[in-house]
Predict the 3D structure of the following.
Amino acid sequence: MAQADPQTAPALALTSDAVTPAAVSPRRRRLVVLAAISAATYTVFSHASAGRCLGGAPEASGRGEGCISVTLSPSPLVFLAMAAILLVALARVARPGAGTRASQRTIDRAAAAIALLALVSLAVCYLWFATDPTAGWAPGEHFSTLLPFPFGSVDIVTTER
């Protein structure tokens, strides 16, 4: 068994920035758990629905009767973005030349990006839904609204009688 030169061994130990599984592994687990919690939180809190029925006698109002229903649900694009951030971060950390500090910084930034994506997506969905997307609709008229794409998926159903 060959012995390392005692004069160069400490210098190599001090300058080595190799990834040690023990140093990065808990952060990896934390990143995966945070991504799962962020996705679950986004899924649970991005559902909403509203509806209204308007109209009366067509002779009195000049309009017919009708109903509108708006349903907000999670967007698959948000989940794809979360998964892409997670996979890119894990791939960068798994590279042989990645250093411990760089790996930790990559994982921390990925965790922040995933959490921020979930929070921004929820905020956009809530703000859009708070503006009452059904307010401008009347039976017999076309309906248009600005959708919260890509932060949420919207299904709009109108019925006229």
Q: What stands out?
A: The beta strands are 48-54, 66-74, 152-160. Residues 8-19 have pLDDT under 50 and may be disordered. The longest strand covers residues 66-74. The chain has five helices and three strands.
